[in-house]
Design goal:
- Keywords: Allosteric enzyme, Chlorophyll biosynthesis, Chloroplast, Heme biosynthesis, Lyase, Magnesium, Metal-binding, Plastid, Porphyrin biosynthesis, Transit peptide.
- Catalyzes an early step in the biosynthesis of tetrapyrroles. Binds two molecules of 5-aminolevulinate per subunit, each at a distinct site, and catalyzes their condensation to form porphobilinogen.
- It catalyses: 2 5-aminolevulinate = porphobilinogen + 2 H2O + H(+).
- Its main location: plastid.
- The protein is α/β, with parallel strands linked by helices.
- It has 2 domains: about 10-75, no CATH class; about 125-420, Aldolase class I (TIM Barrel).
- Helices cover about 35% and strands about 15% of the residues.
- It has helices at about 30-45, 65-75, 110-115, 155-165, 195-210, 240-255, 270-280, 300-310, 330-340, 355-365, 375-385, 390-405, 415-420, and strands spanning about 10-15, 45-50, 55-60, 130-135, 140, 150-155, 170-175, 215-220, 230, 240, 260-265, 290-295, 345-350, 370, 410.
- The strands form 3 sheets. The protein has an 8-stranded parallel beta barrel with strand order 4-7-8-11-12-13-14-15, surrounded by 9 helices.
- α6 (about 240-255) crosses α7 (about 270-280).
């Protein structure tokens, strides 16, 4: 032990003496006990003591003082290291000659510290955009097909949800309105009512939370009595140019209310360029356009349409949304949107179309967004209810995979829950 150890004989706690892990409780120690204590310490290999209000101190007792050990080290007389311990395999493990491998990738995965050091993809709350459903009512109404999601009352429930999301770092939100049937029409004129549900909600949010980013949906389906994203001709054809005219008025109305990013999800040809021109003509040069560039005619949208009561009254949306079988066509849409002035390119859905996310990432310098849609969300939620998967792990893995594929931002109903996990909190 050390040549001198100073401590009060009136207040010493002995934590452990020797290799037998024997413990002695806290008690006053007399000078005679101190002598006995030191003798016992010399007879053992190590001891740990704690004086009052001091940190635990380990003292190695090799029979030499610290000065003697230092002198031996200077002279090159180092103590023998402990023997190398190699854990053995279970009984029956074959004895084999080690493989001559120049590289063993598992070396970089062997500990949590190393795995964290070499992680290629990171996910943070800043990457997440939370979609919110709003309606005219005062109460929040649960959505049956989307556990944990609600049609939020725009005056109170919306503000409360945004407050909770901000608390875990989510600063971006996209609004989807449930419009009363009485306000729907075949031409969707309610979409550009400056005092409509969405403009009112935007103004309220900007007044309460000026630092958040508000994305809006530009499409006619929530406002159409036909449930389609565009005006329907009498023969069932979705009219392109006439629809674009309505979308421009909708985008300008949203920008006038304070939207940061307008997001045409309709998939009409030429709508990005027309909306950019309309925004600029009204002085909204700083309002961004997130184009739903590769929006596929997917079966994963079902719960969303229930939430907004926006199912098409007839037919489907395959004449304007993309065929799930098509890959290269996404490049045509991306190149067109980029030339027309889009600021962000979005892929929808996300998980079934990670190859498209990567395709756009590799072929465009614009930010890439991906929408983890209602069917993806509901699938994870339902599987977790039946104990088929771990909800939290599946949620975080799915979002990380979307990031890995190349998405800068992810629109996800999991946004607040996932951000809570990233912050070390539990979702409530």
């Amino acid at each position: 032990m050390a040549s001198t150890i100073s401590f009060s004989t009136a207040n010493v706690q002995l934590i452990r003496v020797g290799n037998d892990h024997s413990y002695v409780g806290l008690r006053p120690i007399s000078p005679q006990s101190c002598v006995s204590f030191v003798r016992r310490a010399k007879a053992n290999s190590s001891m740990v003591i704690r004086a009052s209000n001091e940190q635990e101190t380990s003292v190695k007792t090799s029979g030499r003082t610290i000065e003697e050990c230092e002198a031996a080290a200077v002279a090159g007389n180092f103590p023998d290291p402990p023997p190398l311990y190699r854990p053995s395999g279970p009984e029956g493990t074959p004895l084999v000659k080690p493989l001559l491998l120049p590289r063993r990738p598992r070396r970089n995965r062997k500990s949590p510290a190393l795995r964290a050091s070499f992680q290629e993809t990171n996910l943070s709350p800043a990457n997440l955009v939370l979609p919110l459903f709003i309606h005219e009512g005062e109460e929040d109404v649960p959505i049956g097909a989307m556990p944990g999601c609600f049609r939020l009352g725009w005056r109170h429930g919306l503000l409360d949800e945004v407050y909770k999301a901000q608390d875990v770092g989510v600063k971006s939100f996209v609004l989807f309105p449930k419009i009363p049937d009485a306000l729907k029409s075949q031409t969707g004129d309610e979409a550009f009512n400056d005092n409509g549900l969405v403009p009112r909600a935007i103004r309220l949010l900007k007044d309460k939370y000026p630092d958040i980013a508000i994305y809006t949906d530009v499409a006619l389906d929530p406002y159409s009595s036909d449930g389609h994203d565009g005006i329907v001709r009498e023969d069932g054809v979705i009219m392109n140019d006439e629809t674009v005219h309505q979308l421009c008025k909708q985008a300008v109305s949203q920008a006038r209310a304070g939207a940061d990013v307008v997001s045409p999800s309709d998939m009409m040809d030429g709508r990005v360029g027309a909306i950019r021109a309309a925004l600029d003509a009204e002085g909204f040069h700083d309002v961004s356009i997130m184009s739903y560039t590769a929006k596929y005619a997917s079966a994963f949208y079902g719960p969303f349409r229930e939430a907004l009561d926006s199912n098409p009254r007839f037919g489907d949306k395959k004449t304007y949304q993309m065929d799930p079988a098509n890959y290269r066509e996404a490049l045509v849409e991306a190149e067109t949107d980029e030339v027309e002035g889009a600021d962000i390119l979005l892929v929808k859905p996300a998980l079934p179309y990670l190859d498209i996310v990567r395709l756009l990432r590799d072929n465009s310098s614009l930010p890439i967004a991906a929408y983890q849609v209602s069917g993806e969300y509901a699938s994870i939620k339902a599987s977790a209810v039946f104990k088929m998967i771990d909800e939290e792990k599946a949620m975080m893995e799915s979002l990380l995979c979307i990031r890995r594929a190349g998405a800068n931002i992810i629109l996800s109903y999991f946004a607040r829950q996932a951000a809570g996990v990233l912050c070390g909190m539990r979702f409530k």
